[in-house]
Amino acid sequence: MKIRITHKGTSSYIDTSYYAMKSDVTSTRSDSGTKIRLKKVFIDTYLTASVTEYRKKINELGARVEFLTASDIKEIITKDNGQIDLFEFGDRYIKALLEEGRETTYARRKSSFKKFKEFTGRKVFSPELLTSKLLKDYERHLLKSGLKLVSLINNMADIQAVFNKAKYEYNDEELGVIRIHNSPFSRYSPPEAPPSKKRTLDIDSIKRIRDVKLTSVADQISRDLFMLSFYMCGTNANDFFAYLTDPTIVRFEYTRNKTKGKRADNAFISIKVVDEARPLVNSLAGPLQARYNTPRGLNNRLSESLKGIVSVLSEVPDLTFYHARHTFATLARKCGYSREDVGAALNHKRKLITDDYIDDDWTLIDKIQRSVLDLLK
């Protein structure tokens, strides 16, 4: 048995699990042929409830139904109304991040989601159970467990990202299909983040890092990559890993992995390979990717090596790879360049409508780069 939807001259059919036997139908002969009809008792027993429910859903569409085809209506009214498991969806969504190459985001969200699942003590979890009260309880739990405030904020942001993705997946507001009704994050706000810790070094510290004698090859590569980041306007290690493969390049041109999918310009930038950077580009382009299989492996090695460099240079506390980027930005500002110009050198998002009218001109970034590096002389 199939239920037919007819609308505006088009038809679509909804499958059912029912089969009719000869005893369930009546047949009428006429000049035009034999007409077979279901007996009322069969319809009432097996089909009336489904048809009534479908009609109810069509009525709920209201005037929107005039803009739909029979096929559209079928898709809307037969959409799975079963329970949604937020845990199953979250695991699937987070796994997809890894397949997209977003390893850092994957690792963080996997860890955050695991903590949340452990907190609930459930194997399955309906999105409707995620309330602002539960979020506050979870926040208190994280604080009691000793999680730092910044990590707590990131954790809650990851849970929100999963929940929002689920709403996008299962809801269709335009057609009035709402399977996840609640909005817990509209009533919950995480604690405010503390002011960002400054990661700026002075010129003498940069020189000491550049000139320090290291015995480990891995430490030498990490130090060289740190200095290359400083020379190349604070470029991230992930972008070197993804794009620095040709030792003969004159300019390092790439789309920044962190933001390329979020910007109309695809986060593209072109940075000059200056004399200071040339020997490092020659030695790292290609061998870097041969030595490390993934950006995550590279970042782990960088973290360990930079801790080792701190032990050699006791006057440089808590050294991270981001110190190169922050220091470049601070020194560029001290050289007299505006915040907007420094942001351009760092490949930050454009904010001015005027930018849409101006062609890219990398000479400004070249000047900023040269001004900062001249401070090392």
Automatic annotation (TrEMBL):
Record keywords, A-Z:
DNA recombination, DNA-binding
- For this protein, the parts annotated as crossing the membrane are none
The UniProt record lists the Phage integrase SAM-like domain at: 86-167
- Supply the name of the protein: Phage integrase SAM-like domain-containing protein
Tell me which stretches of the chain form a coiled coil. Answer: none
